[in-house]
Amino acid sequence: MLLFRYLSLELWKNFILVLLSLTGLLLLTRLVALLVELSSENLSYYDFLRLVLYLAPLFLTFILPLAALLATIFLFLRLSQDHELLALESLGVSFLKLLKPVLFLSFVAFLMTSFVTLKYLPWSKKAFRSFLFELTERKIEKGIPPKKFMSLIPGLSIFVEKAWGKGRHFALVFMVDETSPEERGLIFARRGELFTRPGYIEFRLFEGSLHLASRDLQKIQEMNFEEYLYRLDVAKLEKSRRRSRGEMSLKELRALAAKYPPGHKKYLYYLTEYYQRLAFPWAAFILPLIGAPLGAMVKASGKGAAFFLAVFVYLVYYFLQSASSSLSQAGTLPPALALFLPNIILSVFSCLLIWSFLKGKIGRGK
């Protein structure tokens, strides 16, 4: 029990340190780039915290397995370099007994990655897109800037030559409306006004013309108007917004896949995402078991070599996952088999690695 505590203390210390360091670094890099894009939005501290909350799972999904792998490699690297591994073996402590803290870490990392992948990540993607939609609504409420194309929502842009009254009154208006799947619209007006109220944004345009064209340009309609009211139901637009598969729950992905016959492109598209979410968390369980013998085998001093070794192993797994996803979406392999195949390969590799270490075929000090 004392040995378990001793190993667990260093193992978890390494895990938490690596997890916080990598997450902080990647979050800071992404936030800086995002804040440059949103510099004109006057974000509050609350908005900043929301951004951190929404972006964190994008990195945690990939960092958790890597942090568990690095923590294990660092632990067994130190045990090997300080000759503690040989000392423990000479006292009759088997390598399998040393793996008990690693198994516990693997199990906890698996649960954490499962939660992030299955629950937190889909929610955060949906919340982040809603946040960007909210920023757009705020921008519109501030008024329309002159001589600058402004995208109100996806498919709707506006340009005004002159603006006054905090951007709520303008002259020489040009609007492009591509929100309809059947037709495109161009609106010209001599002047216009902007009105906002909860859930709605209204443009009142005067002395202009409306031009509608079908997507294939076979039908074109034109009309002149003295007054034209263009209303955006923001709440309805947000509800009707088509969600990506990354925002959907497992139940929704399964239900959408069931609407198509087996082998259909959409069937494979949704099932690939479904099984990828189920398969990827197992990396957090398997990779630390590979890290234990690898850490004991590293002959170079310092953690630099161990870090590059861990990144290499992780990239191999990630490459296998990407290749499996491509095979699944192409219909070459059934989605379940394709996405779990990298886990099967790594599980066999980890068992062979541990067995070879125990038999003395590989390893340091053997």
Can you describe what's shown?
It is a single chain. The longest helix is centred in the first third of the chain and has 42 residues. Strand 3 and strand 4 form a beta hairpin. The chain is elongated, with a radius of gyration of 28 Å. The protein has a 6-stranded antiparallel sheet. The model has no long low-confidence stretch (mean pLDDT 84). The protein has 11 helices and 6 strands. It is an alpha+beta fold. It has a domain of 251 residues. 27% of the residues are buried.
Question: In brief, what are we looking at here?
Answer:
This protein has 366 residues and is of the alpha+beta class.
What quaternary form is this? single chain
Q: Quickly give the structural class.
A: alpha+beta
Order of SSEs: HHHHHEEEEEEHHHHHH
Tell me what portion of residues adopts beta-strand conformation.
15-25%
Task: Compute the number of helices.
Answer: 11
Globular, elongated, flat, extended or rod-shaped: what is the shape?
A: elongated
Distance between the termini: 26 Å
The biggest beta sheet, please?
Answer: 6 strands, antiparallel
Strand order of the largest sheet: 1-2-3-4-5-6
Helix content: 55-70%
Average pLDDT, all residues: 84
Low-confidence blocks of residues: none
Say how many strands there are: 6
C-alpha Rg (nearest Å): 28 Å
Topology (elements, then pairings):
Blueprint: H1 2-37, H2 45-81, H3 84-90, H4 95-98, H5 100-141, E1 150-153, E2 156-164, E3 169-177, E4 183-197, E5 200-214, E6 220-233, H6 234-240, H7 250-257, H8 265-279, H9 283-297, H10 304-330, H11 335-358
Antiparallel strand pairs: 1-2, 2-3, 3-4, 4-5, 5-6
